[in-house]
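hi! just following up on the protien thing from before. the input was this:
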Amino acid sequence: MLLLLAVVLTCVAVSANPDSTQVRRKRVGVVLSGGGAKGMAHIGVLKVLEKAGIPVDIITGTSMGSIIGGLYAIGYNAEALDSLVLRQNWSYVITDKENLRNQSLDDRSKSNTYFFSTGFAFGKRDKNAGGLVKGKNLAELFQRVCMGYNDSLDFSKDLCIPFACVATNIVDNTEVDFHSGRLWQCMRASMAIPAVFSPVRMGDMVLVDGGLKNNYPADLAREMGAEVIIGVTVQGDAKTAEDLSGTLSVIGQIVDVNCKNKVEDNLAITDLHMKVDVRGYSTGSFTTEAIDSLIRRGERTGNENWDAIIALKKKIGIDDSFRPVIHQPLRPKVLTEKQYVKSYDFGNLTKYDERFLRRKFNLGKNDSIDATTVQLITTCLRMDLFYQSAECDVIPESDGVRVQLSVGNRKSMMLHIGARYDQEEHAALQLGATVPLRTSVPVNTELTVRLGKRIFARGDFTVHPAFFTRPKLSYTFRHYDVDVFKEGDLDYDVRYNQSQAEFTPFNFDLRNFNVQLGLRWDYVHYLDKLGSDHAVRVTLPNQHFVSYRARVNYNSEDHWYFPTQGARFKAEYAYVTNDFTQLDVLDDAGNKLGKASGMHEVSAGWRMSFTIGKRFTLQPMFYGRLLFGDEVPTIFGNTVGGSWFGHYTEQQMPFAGIGNMEFVRQHFIAAQLQAQERIGKNHYILLRAGVGAQSEKLGQIFDNKALVGGQIAYYYNTIFGPVGAAFGYSNHTKKVDFFLNLGHTF
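and the predicted 3d structure came back as:
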């Protein structure tokens, strides 16, 4: 507490009296231009200014310059900014993706199945519309790092360093200079690149990137009392006609041309101007590697101007004995520390939503909150309660904080689109729609349709009470047209329809963990079975089954397709019957011979990732499926092949080197070791080696010839999913297998 008080007093003293060192000197203003990701270079220049002992009495900025400047003004020094920007996942921050680390595995699966998801509120205007990205993740990041400064403030009196930033009001095409307000909101408005990020609405103003009117606001610094101005710009060279070949480059050029307003006049009043060389980078270069390189380029630019910086000390009126105050973040543990909550304000939420949140997060019982809980609450408002936008402000008060929630319109539905291609199925399209019902307890209805060789349709009705379980009722229809192979050669083709109805009263989610207990009904309608020569057509008898099922699913992997750490575990037990207790015994023609006890199905799979160095990962995996009982219906028999679990049929298990579906015996276990090497950022080379054992009786599983296979694959990870190909060989098929995959798996 004493340390906190000392820092506060220091900030107040510096803001109120920049000459607190008793050395009479001129006030120094630092001006940071806009430039998107290129603005990260400002951090490197600030490092050099700190090293040189240059005081910063005023700071102004536009767009990314406003973010770096605003955070510097509340105490994030250059080293703190370096650490902060490098540990962010910018591919998440600059999108509207949800943070699904603490959401259900089902929600995470959807995000890795569909390349496009969006929400609709029919008949309602979305106030956050107007750009490809609404900027919710940017806003949440700014709120977290500015925690303690999220109330309306006077930027000249309430921050450690007086600050101002610029936005553009597109209603009347005027410049808006922010000297006060909610800091995070002003920074967000200043960097709302037109057509990319949605504008920020304040009263009757619609605000976008300030660079359109004043991309280098040295005049603001002068108006605020700066007598010596040090400026940094990160604009690249002028583009030629050949450079303008894409949508983003055209938009960028429109912004850059307009950003020349006032620049020459403001450079004329600058005492030291430093232009960073940003060749090779663009406004969208938000990768960790690019940000690190841009910061180093900024530092290099500062060092190249070292003599000019030192010479400027004389004009400022200081010498080498002067040591400016280098601020520390007012609250260095702002992202993790808990704060005492005095009250909750639920704004425009319904009483049902308020009750739901209080129960889910124990808001009436917990007397503290941290940044992680804030994000969980806003994610819940968008995911579980279906609001288009959600904000959770933590507002400091005398002896605690007040938590204020506000939401936008409720979404009428969510639409998901996924597409893929492989050389076996060719093109496939999957569509999903989720519609919330207006009930006191959140209820979602969901429809999923898959078009392609394997036609699929599923309807889900899920209740979302505040307590731990989410009961679900589902109906699924699948049309199968499956080629069944035997030791690498086509044996027969079978076509059938399968209907499933499942009631899951116990459906428990806890971050990476899901447990389900339920009852399922299956009806199998066989269409026909053709031999490999298609000369003989066989009609099979239709069947129905009732099964009791228990599932456990755990997934802590850091990537859905190319993990480098974490584990994945899935296990299922099922007791399969025809009449809730027993199974019919059938002969080869499908005639009923009698009754037998039900079939027991036990399946499990486990995978771990161990990274060696920065790019190489080893992934051991063990899996298998054991079937017990006197009668095992063919529809539930063990099959292997394909590239992932459930590739062609629900119970199918992958095996390196076997591409098509093959039946194996009742008891099957396998082990696989995968070596994964990342090349560059998104290129992957995969080597897989697998061994499997099978038998009719569990005690004899190692008595038969082992299955051995291997595979080499290359994939490029895109926003549409993995794109690549694999070659494999196994001693079971004795043939080279080739598989081409484009897109997410489903």
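The longest strand covers residues 489-510.
The radius of gyration is 31 Å.
cheers
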